[in-house]
From TrEMBL:
Statement: the UniProt record of this protein carries the keyword DNA-binding: yes
Pfam families: RHH_4
Name of the protein described by the UniProt record: Predicted DNA-binding protein, contains Ribbon-helix-helix (RHH) domain
All copies of domain Ribbon-helix-helix, residue ranges: 7-68
InterPro entries hit by this protein: RHH_dom, RHH_sf
Gene3D superfamilies, A to Z: protein bp1543 (1.10.3990.20)
Keywords from the named record: DNA-binding
GO molecular function: DNA binding
């Protein structure tokens, strides 16, 4: 099994370099979502950044990924 600790990932948001710490599973799914939408990772991260409010960017990305997965696999309950 892969390391469960978050790893630092570099992003460029509107011309500014930043980094987020995300677990491999979230990062891989985030990349898949961006590819499926025809977006670059940085563009999708910038979109999430604009709408994240007062939570951290890494948390906002995790929640974005979770909502996307849930929308594709709705629960029966």
């Amino acid at each position: 099994m892969t390391d469960k600790r978050p790893a630092k990932r570099s992003l460029t948001l509107r011309g500014h370099r930043t980094s987020v710490s995300l677990e491999d599973a979230f990062w891989k799914e985030f990349c898949t979502i961006a590819t499926n939408r025809g977006q670059a990772i940085n563009a999708l991260a910038a979109e999430i950044d604009e709408d994240r409010g007062d939570i951290g960017l890494a948390s906002a990305i995790r929640l974005f990924v979770l909502r996307d997965v849930q929308s594709r696999h709705p629960s029966d309950g």
